[in-house]
Amino acid sequence: MPAAYVLGLWIALCAVVVWLAAGSMQGLGPLRKWTAVGLRCLCLLLIVLMIAGVRVTRPSKTVEVIVLKDVSRSTSQVDKFPGASLPTALQTYIEQLATAKPADDRIGVVSFASNAQIDAIPGTTLYTSPPSAKDPGNGTDIAQAIQLGLATFSSDSRRRLVLISDGNENAGDLEAAMDLAAAQKVPIDVIPLEYSNTTGVVLERLNAPLYRKTGEPFGVEVMMRAGVEANRRGRLTLLHEGNIMAQRDVTLQPGLNVERFVVAPMAAAGVHEFKAQFEPFTSGAATPVRPGAVSPAMLAAGSATAFTVLQGGSSVLLVDNVPNDGAQFLVNALAHERIVIPGVNRITPDKLPSEALRLQAYDCIILANVPRGSGGLDAAQDRALASYVHDLGGGLLVVGGEDAFGAGGWQGSELEKVLPLEMEVPARREIPKGALVLAMHSCEMPDGNYWGEQCGIKAIEAIGERDDIGILSYDYRSGGSQWDFPLAQRADGSAAISAVKNMKLGDMPSFQDMLEAALNGRAGHPGLKDSNARQKHIIVISDGDPAGPSEDLMAACRAAKVTLSTVSVYPHDRSDRNLPPTMRKMAESLGGKSYGPIDSNPNQLPQIFIKEATVVRRSLIQEEPKGFAVKQSPTFDEALKGVAAPGALTGYVLTSLRKDGLVDMPLSIGNSNDPLLAIWQAGLGRSACYTSDARNKWGSNWVLSSGFSKFWAQLVRSLAWPATSTDMDIRIDPQGDRAKIVVEALDANQAFNSGLALSATAIGPDGRPHAVRLSQTAPGVYEATMDTGSPGNYIVSVSGPGGGRPAVAGLSVNSSAEFRDTKSNMTRLQTIADRTGGKVMTPYEVPVHAARFFDRTLLPDVSSPLPIADSLFPLLLALLLLDIACRRLAWDAQTPGRMLAKVGAFVRSYTATVPQLEQAQSDQAVATLRTVRGRGGSVSQGPALGTVQPPAATTGAGTAKARFEAAEGTTPADIGAWAGGAASGGDKAGAAKPKSDNPGAMEDQSAVSGLAAAKRRAQERMKGDQP
Amino acid sequence: MLPPRKVVRHFLLFGTVFGSAFGVIGCRPSDEPSSVFLETGAGPGQVVYPRVIEYSASDDTLFVVDRMARIQHLTKAGKCLAAWRMPEFEAGKPVGASLGPDGNLYVADTHYHRVIVYTPTGAEVRRFGSRGTGTGEFIYPTDIAFDAAGLCYVSEYGDNDRIQVFDATGRVVRTIGSAGSAAGQFIRPQSIAIRDGLLYVADSCNHRVQVLTLEGVVVRVFGGSGDGPGEFRFPYGLTFNPAGNLVITEFGNNRVQVIDAATGKNLRTLGHAGHEPGEFAYPWAAACDGRGDLFVLDSGNNRIQSFSP
Questions:
Q1: CA pair distance B70, B118, nearest whole angstrom
Q2: Nearest to A707 by CA among A783, A644, A636, A647
Q3: What is the model's pTM?
Q4: Interface predicted TM-score (ipTM)
């Protein structure tokens, strides 16, 4: 609250107090009245200050310097530094700076690349954390480093940032960060990491056509940029799928160079990868520099990659996870109908490309009994397949088996969204449920809580709505394992996921306690022993440090048919086949698997949890030796006309039909008409699911029938995408960190097709599709831009107005933005220094730097406001008491003096020696006698009171007092003087007290009559004042 | 109305009486910490999940080891006198240490299965032990203690729960106990101490304290799982106060119990779970100075709380 408001409010309140006091405090007299008013005004001032949140400021005494250290990839091009390497040189420099600084000043370190992190909290002694093992990424975010540095400063010090960087930033809002630092008056001094890669050669791009037909020759071109001082002689190599295809020695000109190669006709359809490499010759030599002799930056910049899809005939990819070579039935059936799947197109799940671009070569992909998670497809493959179907128009056939659909953990996957079936079973079906308990132990791993959360969420998503889920972790408050989510039905999973997100993983001391809680329940919530689930499973994630469970407890688990798998993360003990013995022993004893060790690859953790969660989903597999009847839908799919449906099948995986009008279910199975075959149009592509298998386990009779081959061939043909659209041409032009998408649309007459509402889908290296809106810029020309900051493959698909296969284009970004700049950006560094009041310094001059960085005269004073409202409260209380005392106690101007005199006398009575005391008493008695004697006849009125009795006169002093007994009762002031003087020697003073049956009543009477008289006088005075 | 002198006298009289009463109450052991020090961080006087505390009587200071593998030599007010880091710490950090009769700090380098001996200023003197279950080898050494004869006792766990006794030359004199729950067996002997010729073992995962002769004969066992007085839940820390009573730090119950070493009877209980002063989160260990001031390592709160005797 502004001070003027505070003052105004206080004055207003004081005016009210004064006005009220004028009417109600007349009886106090002017001194007491105005004192009370003053005290009340002071109280009001304190209250107003407290409400306003008054603070006092304390000037800063210390200097705090935070060093922002650039560790991005581009700094690997720096070649001038003291010592063995740049990181070592910078670490040494910072340590020397910390040593050279004044003892009370503080220094901290923030390192940054694509993200910023605190390496050393500001302190008087530099204590750097161990270097992070995190990938620096493909960016440099100076803005984030500045913001983190500003946020890390203490509030009570003068502050300075020191930026050590090459100035090549490509992420974040540097302008805003500089403004923030300037606004906070924090100067940023800059120590440049200078380099000028004039000696290098950068392969900017390898251009290859995205589509060509098999047997058709085509050319590729390599675009290279050479520095002015570069050793421009070297060997350029073109590799195809890792093998040298062509090689030539070249002499480059400074600037951009283009070298072209002609690729001989190739017969194999599919995705073909090309890579160009340039290796400079050593000076005067005719052979390339050894790869180890060039800098990582040059190696990274010295290669470029591109892809070409060769189309020829029908190309089907089979992802085979069928045991005992069972997929051969399907391969033979398709071959019988002239759909040949060559050996290279029959792959295991781990070989499936994780980029949608690489799936472009296939007309249809078949997943045969493929699970999700560990042993199946990972998250990237899942995303790529979904994009292949939905965004690129590919065809997908999913064939069942024991590890497929819900039993394979596909619930909640990206792929499920493009399938005509849902993995959740229909509500009307009564199937045995499963029960899963997740036992989570905090591990000493980076981002441990995050990964724990991800594991929990994936496991919850992978089980069914009617399955039970329970989550256990160690709770330090109870000193044992507690339910974060008690064992209960998963339902939609939101409650369990919420519990996972609120989970606080504790330091578990023993697995015994955890296993007891999982088995027997805890805190009134039952455990697996009391569950009616058919499959009961526990997944334990831990570093293996907690003490193992007893054999009795594990026997009890076995008796309750509870299985257990373990996941060892960052284990300390690897003595049992690279895993902690406790973890392996628990899993083996309870019939589960032991995964790990998970060290630097936590990405696989969620996959393991998905895989393990499906253990409780085995009840989705429906098997009947006599076979389930197969029913054919009246709306039998066009593509399957004339094909005989399978007869009775002995097994399938239970799923439910997607509630969408586009879904067709030509075949159903069993009395409940569960889906057997379902087909639908998913985005631009088509997908189909067949919930039984295609081998001789569940369809032993059918594989021998004549219709088996035709069924599968027609199904695959119906899914494979139509002919390539020819009415659109897409071009992608890279422009720095972005690329321009240019689409030229023609109509059937080959005239420009304008006025179309086109939208494109761009899929980046992360595999996630992004919608891109295209705007018409010329007749038949549509354009848009997309971000291409990360290295990798980009693919853009545009579906034409007439439907059909979408037009697709691709772009390979070969090097990250980190290597696109061949020299440090001194201009930007100078701007940072200028805008914030800093200075660009010469590197590694420690004494000069320390003198400037920690010079407090160069830094603005920073005062830290401290709230003092709490401290004012006792003062307010004291003032309130004084105010009450001021009004309730009768006092006048002389009272303070009398009180001081009494206090002085009291102190003297304790500090004076006995002779001094006696002398003082004697002097005071004599003075009192003189005073009384001097009053003469005025004492004659005394006896009128008639109630005072003379004290017993047993001593000489008493005899003397008896002579003046009447005077003692009439002069209260003299009584006081007397009592404090001559009679102050002890109990004898009591003898002078008037004797009465009720002395207190007499005093009250006297006081009341006195007050009444005073009141009368005051009223008369007031009347007299009135006009 | 009483005369002023009497008023003064009465005031002095009652003041003396009430003052004395409050003084007596004030001198009674308080459950509130007399001080709370250290804070979270990587700097001097800062800690991240400290798990070891050891009192040095020679200079009235403390040694603290945290989960950044840092050993800090601290004053009793938390000021850092010296600090150093374990030579390796990727696999894990120490959970036990003791000052030897030679004045050096013996650190149980738990996850490297060895003991490293440092001077009080951090210079490594020697190291012994390696991974294994044989004599002189360790699996997760947890704590170290010394008897009057100078023999060194090292406890360990990891299905190899036992206590090995070393002489001054590093030769194993004897081995005490094995993994299990019977008397004389241990599950995670997290902390050990020796006093009056007896070996006290915090048998953590059996939730009890075992008292043995120095030869390994069980004298008595007390405790048991629970949160009542005299019961324990994961007793991790074990030390003695000057009065000869055991001070047990309970990881599971988030409290400290002062226990009669002879009977196992609870004499005093401090703290409960929480983050306020007087409350604990994962207390791993405690140390007592010569005056009986108790320093509790409040690990989960990254601090030390001291209590008057």
A1: 13
A2: A644
A3: 0.59
A4: 0.72
